[in-house]
Write a structure and sequence with these properties.
- It contains 22 helices and 8 strands.
- The protein has 558 residues and is mainly alpha-helical.
- It has 2 domains: 6-10 and 20-409, no CATH class; 418-557, 2-Layer Sandwich (Transcription Regulator spoIIAA).
- A 6-stranded mixed sheet has the order 4-3-5-6-7-8. Strands 1-2 form a two-stranded antiparallel ribbon.
- Helix 4 crosses helix 6 (129-152) and helix 15 (365-374) runs antiparallel to helix 16.
- The longest helix is centred in the middle third of the chain and has 32 residues, at 244-275.
């Protein structure tokens, strides 16, 4: 059942939900069909690659996934990264582009499978939200910039995104007015449909209207590019035929894709699982995405993941289970079998408008401003990720985003925050005296609390900080209490630093006392023989107990 969640929920499926799930699935297909065709264009693939991926990705995920609403299909971010990944690999042999794209999808599937088997679902938590939002914002800007030539009917630029934008701006005077009018009308309809007809798939409405108008006005005779022939029927499964060297080249490129896809997919799955009061299994999600991407690759599709917009639409339309994804998959298959001929006259400008509309919600600067309000450094990290994607490309931007996250993590963990504590009058609560000047302090007793983990990255800094506090203390210190309430573990460096602190205290005639020591920390102190050195009589359950014991000792001494 863990390998096939469908065997768990399908036998208990309430028939009363079938009608609602089917309608939600049909509506979902109406949104995903035009978007998938547009995302295939972003990836540099023919439209049918997006349709194949949607049909088989949805079906595979419905069988193996644990989310009831997640819509697994090509996404804007993955399409943009796929293009940036495959283009260098296929530079010498452009004819290999399609096969290499399928190969990368297959490698991503294998990576997901290995990660699922090893239960590495926690990895998604290691990219901070501000950095990820900045990275996705940068991708959205990149996609919009790349779609501008399609919306204007001009030749597309080359090079980094900022160069492509400049080249587009210098060619604006060459724009085809018929193409501009088509794109502008499509965009207007899409955004107006969002506002006034939220339950109608605006992308499907624009697609149908675009085909109809294109046929009636014969837009292709006015210089408007059209999609052209899309092969009818379902693809025959086959394994990508590449050399061993090609596979080795595809593997590293797939790592970044897999990370972004998983973070994006798990975020959407968790959001709507929480909204609908059920849980998902992150490791099962890895296995489900593995099968979805492998299936897509074998059926000549592109990479797939859980998209936020498709999942939100699926939930809004009333999807209660994976049956909606199965219904959507069947609708896409029927489209491939019988309706591809209708897409011949579809203007490329309409597909470009659908893509721009789909990624527009990702250009959420208000979210970045919220980071600035909460914590300025994280706002700067998100902006750095945006700039990196625009200036250096998506893959380098991804690398920088990961580095920024690791730097931010190490910066946070290496901070040497040690608070001087005092007791709030009339209570047993000890607080930071810098924030609560009214807190009571005790003559000759310095009470400290380590407000971070104590480990190799910050141990020496904390030692120096404590020495500074001892030097700055008013009057002689006869006892120093260090609260370990927030310290979950100790490594070798931390043990050595604590040994040095104890030796320094003994030299100055200061009694070192530890309070709030957790059992794992106590065990580590015992293994290092430091527990015996400090003495069991100097280890207390709480700061209050330690203070009471020291003040009592002082009173008896007096």
């Amino acid at each position: 059942m863990k390998l096939l969640p469908i065997t768990d929920w399908l036998p208990q499926y309430p028939r009363a939900n079938l009608r609602g799930d089917t309608i939600a699935g049909i509506a979902l297909a109406g949104l995903l069909i035009p978007e998938a065709m547009g995302y295939a264009g972003i990836a540099g693939l023919p439209p049918q690659a997006g349709l194949y991926a949607t049909a088989f990705g949805l079906l595979a995920y419905a069988i193996f996934g644990s989310s009831r609403q997640l819509a697994v299909s090509p996404t804007s971010a993955s399409a943009a990264i796929l293009a940036a990944t495959v283009a260098p690999l296929a530079a010498q042999t452009p004819g290999k582009f399609f096969v290499l794209a399928s190969a990368v999808s297959l490698v991503v599937g294998v990576l997901f499978l290995v990660a699922g088997i090893l239960k590495l679902g926690f990895i998604s938590d290691f990219i901070s939200k501000p950095v990820l939002k900045g990275f996705v914002f940068g991708i959205a800007l990149t996609i919009v910039i790349k779609q501008l030539p399609k919306l204007l009917g001009i030749e597309k630029g080359t090079g980094p995104s900022y160069m492509q934008l400049w080249q587009t701006l210098t060619r604006v005077t060459q724009a085809n007015l018929w193409t501009v009018f088509t794109a502008a009308t499509a965009l207007a309809v899409l955004f107006l449909a969002d506002r006034y007809l939220p339950r109608i798939p605006g992308a499907l409405l624009v697609l149908v209207a675009g085909i109809a108008v294109s046929r009636v006005l014969e837009l292709h005779t006015h210089g408007v590019d059209i999609v052209g022939v899309i092969p009818a029927g379902l693809p025959h499964p086959s394994f990508p035929m590449l050399t061993w060297s090609d596979w080795l080249q595809a593997a590293p490129a797939a790592v970044g894709l897999a990370l972004v896809l998983y973070v994006e997919s798990l975020g959407a799955a968790r959001t709507f699982a929480s909204k609908n009061n059920y849980d998902i299994d992150p490791n099962q999600e890895l296995r489900a995405l593995a099968v979805a991407n492998a299936t897509s690759a074998i059926f000549h599709g592109m990479i797939v993941g859980g998209g936020t917009s498709g999942t939100a639409a699926n939930d809004t339309n009333g999807a209660k289970s994976q049956v909606s994804a199965i219904a959507a998959s069947l609708m896409v298959m029927l489209t491939l079998l019988f309706l591809t001929g209708w897409f011949y006259h579809l203007p490329e400008a309409v597909l470009g408008a659908i893509v721009v509309h789909a990624v527009w919600h990702l250009l959420n600067y208000q979210e970045l401003k919220r980071f600035r309000r909460i914590r300025r450094i994280e706002y700067h990290e998100s902006l750095a990720a945006v700039i990196a994607v625009i200036a250096f490309g998506i893959l380098n931007g991804l690398l920088l985003a990961v580095i920024l996250t690791l730097v931010a993590l190490m910066r946070y963990l290496s901070q040497t925050q040690v608070a001087v504590l005092g007791r709030l009058p009339g209570t047993n609560e000890y607080v930071d005296v810098a924030r609560h000047p009214e807190a009571e302090q005790f003559s000759g007793i310095l009470v400290l609390r380590i407000d971070r983990m104590l480990f190799f990255a910050n141990a020496d800094g904390i030692r120096q900080h404590i020495r500074g506090l001892l030097t700055q203390s008013n009057g002689p210190v006869r006892a120093m209490i260090i609260s370990f309430e927030l310290v979950p573990m100790l490594d070798v460096t931390a043990i050595d630093v604590l040994t040095q602190l104890h030796a320094r205290a003994v030299d100055r005639g200061i009694r070192l006392v530890l309070a709030g020591v957790r059992d794992p920390v106590r065990d580590r102190l015992a293994k290092a023989s430091l527990l015996k050195t400090i003495g069991e009589e100097n280890i207390f359950r709480t700061v209050d107990h330690a203070v009471d014991a020291l003040t009592a000792t002082s009173s008896s001494g007096d």
